[in-house]
Amino acid sequence: MPDIPHRPLPTSPEAAPPQPSAASPTRRHVVQGLGTGTAALALAGLAPSAGAQAVPQGGTGRAGSATPSAHTPPAPDAPRFFSPADFALLRAACERIFPADTQGPGAIALGVPNFIDAQMDTPWGRGELWYMQGPYRPDAPANLGYQLPYSPQQIYRKGLAGVQAWMRQTHQAAFETLPPEEQDRILEALEHNATQFDGLPAAVFFEQLRTDTIEGAFSDPLHGGNRHLAGWTMMGFPGARGDYMDWVDQYDTPYPYGPVSISGETA
Amino acid sequence: MTEKTLSPVDVVVVGSGWAGSIMAKELCEAGLSVVMLERRGRRSTARDGAYPSSLDELEGAVRYKLFQNPADTTVTVRNRMDQEAVPYRRLAAFLPGAGVGGAGLHWTGVHFRATPQDLRLRSHIVERYGRAFIPEGMNLQDYGVTYEELEPFFDRAEKVFGTSGEAYTVGGKATGKGNIFAPDRSDDFPLPPLRDVYTAHLFRQAAAEAGYHPYAMPAANASQPYTNPYGAQMGPCNFCGYCSDYACYMYAKASPNVNIMPALRRHENFTLRSNAHVLKVLLDSTGRKATGVVYQDAEGNHITQPAGLVILAAFQFHNVHLMLLSGIGKAYDPVSNTGTVGRNFTYQNITNSTVWMPPTRSTDQFIGSAGGVAIDDFNCDNFDHGPHGFIGGSPLWVNQAGVKPIAGAKATTPGVPRWGSAWKKAAIDTYRHSFTINAQGSNMAYRDVYLDLDPTWRTSYGQPMLRMTFDWKDNDIRMNRYVIGHLEGIVKALGARDVQYGMREEGKPFDVRAYQTTHLCGGAVMGEDPKTSALNRYLQSWDVPNVFVVGANAFPQGMGYNPTGLVAALAYWSAYHIRTQWLKGNGGPLVTP
């Protein structure tokens, strides 16, 4: 039998973070750390619009509950690493990066947020696949690569908390309750590094989110994303077939067979 | 931690990749007791290349299952001598292997011989263009060994690897196929070339129409079932597309694990120890003789393995690192221009161009092998460099080794959004209808591009990290742009709807954030002059004659071709001279300086 990785529930205290609350010292520090929040938003053309303010706040932190979408996604799988509030923001952001559209399903239907949640409790998520010893030189030239002291878990913790605080300052609303166009403008601001979250440049968080969204959409379903192989079907990738002997020289004839996963699932 | 000294053996081989496996096999055949030390764990096709669980892009190519973990050891990198180098914290630009098989397990399998020109590039350039043609600061050198001398060893390596390809001439007789620029061969490839995938077929037609000379790339992927001289069996490549970054589940891609280890394990005088990280080579009080190595085992114990002969056969930069840590030879100092260890560090100058075919044409990029179609019209000195004033060249090729969807979707196109619906549409279109043409070029050596020990950062073993000082230079930038300029005719003949030319840009420094190639070279190069080379022509240390250093570290400059074919031939060449000369002598230098 192939080794199908089991992804046990987190057991260490570190893997089950305390629920962030606006009153916690950590959170207050993050808000102070933003400093340029409102100004940066204004610079990025992100002053809250009338439309954004008109949307009621979700309150429960559940994505979809406040989005006036024709298709309400199914209730999300409970996250193992992220808090419900963090996960609601994560789901909404992934869905804007990889939206449901005429090409096919979006990140939520593909299970991408659950993929990212599961990846947090892996050697990679814990930063064990990166060199994480100091001293750190965060101001080194960008072409010399990542120089921050943060593991993927820490990038997500800081990034999600930072966006939440930023949204409270600038929109008085949670990201996931904003209309999609407004969410896009905020993500663009992150992409263009309009602010930083307690030492984490917004663009670093955005790039991690973009990268992991792609990986969740197109990796084997055993990792929790690419549900029903819908990511591969969209791309036209046959998955783990691993044998094209019969198609090597059938030039200019599109490969006809749909994808197969490592577990043998077909689409 | 405890310290322990083991019983002496004849030979200790550091590293279990191609170089180490070849050396160990040859020296076991010579009757010597051989201990091979591998930094990381055991690997086999049965476990690491199992079907279908190993066909996992996330695990293989994104989380780097078969690669070195930077948390264990990494390097620091800077572009210029006046900068502080910083750690290469996340793998990206280059991917050294770890575990039994080394880079030989995760490589693609492109298997070239070096060209006669490349092996004596300095002499060739001086003869054709004059000494003044060599730019100031370029350390252009010969290998000290010729193609004619290496030919039997190239041939041997191809037979061991089960290489598929098409010869141009064999024994001076034209076959009517192959690369018109290829040197003569004593024998044909052991297997016929792999079939062209669709994109390679398109490139072959277009390149011919544009007036160039396309040929099937030589690949250590078996085009038919094959049994090599060691009795190791290979299955036929089925174009599954999991070559680079994976262990081949079909036993079709040559690896030390498939092609050499089964025979090596049968030698009673052979011992493989994994999770044995060599910390340094031990020298006697004269500093001119190695007495063995000390390594750290999985429990953190420091074990001394005495040996009469030490073969360094780790990855290119690990060999250089071990020489610097051990004091073998004199460390290179670019200011005084003295010393040789760390000198002539080079890379490979690769840029990728993307062409989009009409939407009616599906490029099926997931189908792949190490084969493909190349042209050598702009490689080496196959064209007159006189009017251009640069040295070096690039083959151009379609070497589609299977593009998986994460890699496909991460590729960005200038002018197209990087996320959202418009990006999704473009990513799907690109994946289904585009393909990539690579210009994989030479990289010359320069006085201020080198390796040394970092003053600040340490590996997890508490030793100074290796520091890379590397940047692209004017000669190499202009070479790349000249070659890419000639791609237009091919693209036109392809009938592409769009093209994105990838080329070097002046002022854009070497960037560690995106994968380029793992073809790192030099740093402990072979040559004829101990002032400019760390090793003699037999890969023997000039300074410590019972140490041989085998790998791409020996290349005086980076070539356009992939390095493995030359690494393997040099290993057989070195082993031959150890067996026929060094073992029969007094253990001294094979070349008198």
TrEMBL record, chain A:
Residues 1-34, 51-80 are annotated as: Disordered. Residues 7-20 have a biased composition (Pro residues). InterPro entries: Gluconate_2DH_su3, TAT_signal. PROSITE patterns: TAT. Pfam families: Gluconate_2-dh3 (PF13618). This is Gluconate 2-dehydrogenase subunit 3 family protein. It comes from Acetobacter farinalis.
TrEMBL record, chain B:
SUPFAM superfamilies: FAD/NAD(P)-binding domain. Keywords: FAD, Flavoprotein, Oxidoreductase. Residues 9-44 form the FAD-binding domain. Residues 458-571 form the Glucose-methanol-choline oxidoreductase C-terminal domain. InterPro entries: FAD-bd, FAD/NAD-bd_sf, GMC_OxRdtase_N, GMC_OxRtase_C. Residues 228-346 form the Glucose-methanol-choline oxidoreductase N-terminal domain. Belongs to the GMC oxidoreductase family. This is GMC family oxidoreductase. It comes from Acetobacter farinalis.
